[in-house]
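lol ok so funny story. i was supposed to be doing the assay writeup but got distracted and ended up predicting the structure for this chain instead. priorities right. anyway since i did it might as well share w the group, maybe its usefull for someone
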Amino acid sequence: MTALDLGGLAGVLPGVAAVLGLRDVHDPLDLRTRLGDPRQVAVLLIDGFGYHLLPRAAKKSAFLKDVLSERVGTLTPLQSSFPSTTPTSLVTLGTGTLPGEHGVVGFTVAIPGTDRVLTHISWDNDPPVGEWQPVPSIMTRLDAAGIATSVVSRPSFEGTGLTRAAYGDGRYVGASDSREVADRVLAELHSGARLVYGYHPSLDTAAHLHGVASRKWGRAARAVGRLVQRVVEGMPAGAALIVTGDHGAIDVPPADRIELSNDERLCQGIRVIAGEPRVRYLHTRPGAAADVLATWHTVLGERAVVLDRDDAISRGWYGPMRSSFRARLGDVVVVCTGRTIVTARGHEPDGVRGLVGFHGGLEPEETAVPLMSFVR
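and the output, tada:
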């Protein structure tokens, strides 16, 4: 496994900001060529919308089929950040920086100096948002420059630590389902907002609970197609739309699942375990790091890449790492390959072991997301 093209997802909002006239930002994806000179831009982030899932989604949506066949809009693949998990990707998108700079380096992360594990999707303000994630969001910078922005997302996400870390404290509009997301994104555009960001999580939920091969995932994909089509057809003249995802998903069969508590060898020397089933951060007891690394490497073999912290950082997966963030990674970093997952009874909610779909690792099905663009 080598370094990702980590500039991918991190380049979306800086490029949009440059197109809208914000100074001192770059457009690494050359969005101006794709979008021209729009007065307004909407960005839709579809959680779990992997590039490799598009052919499956296109079977459920005539509109997505037209996008895939290049009859509507433009489509290219884009790289997520690592780990390929929602909190990391949302803050990468929202700040235009890589995980090593913004510090949200996993789904769950041990807080240095403690045995406490922070779950980013349920984070409030402890640790304080501005201390844990110090990079100003692109939307905060746009608002400060007088370029009005709005966030459209689930009402329950308003004011959470993850929302504030990714998007700042600007205008927030609640929307509970795909139809509401579409309608409220359009309302914000028609009211004059220059950048409107919309987030829709149901595709990812269906993948986790039922798998990407399930009928429920297919119905969620059909709703995504309707959401995108509704925004494309309803946005004002002179506006543009970008659609992307935060990661893909893979279905994991029982044979590829390793439960930590079922193998005493894997439990030895560990003080705190964080991350998620595809990427584990192992914080070890004093003096145990080398033994833990060697044991996990022997037991998992080719089913995972097992590295110490310094080696993981040197691979370039996180981009340049602030020294103050290094300890957020485990003493040992375990990145599962193929379809392997490592669950950890007692260290995570019991429901995790009942999930079907997973992501977080470095496989192309997890890291490749679409970059769709539409111009009115």
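The two ends are 40 Å apart (CA to CA). The longest helix spans residues 215-234.
back to the writeup now i swear
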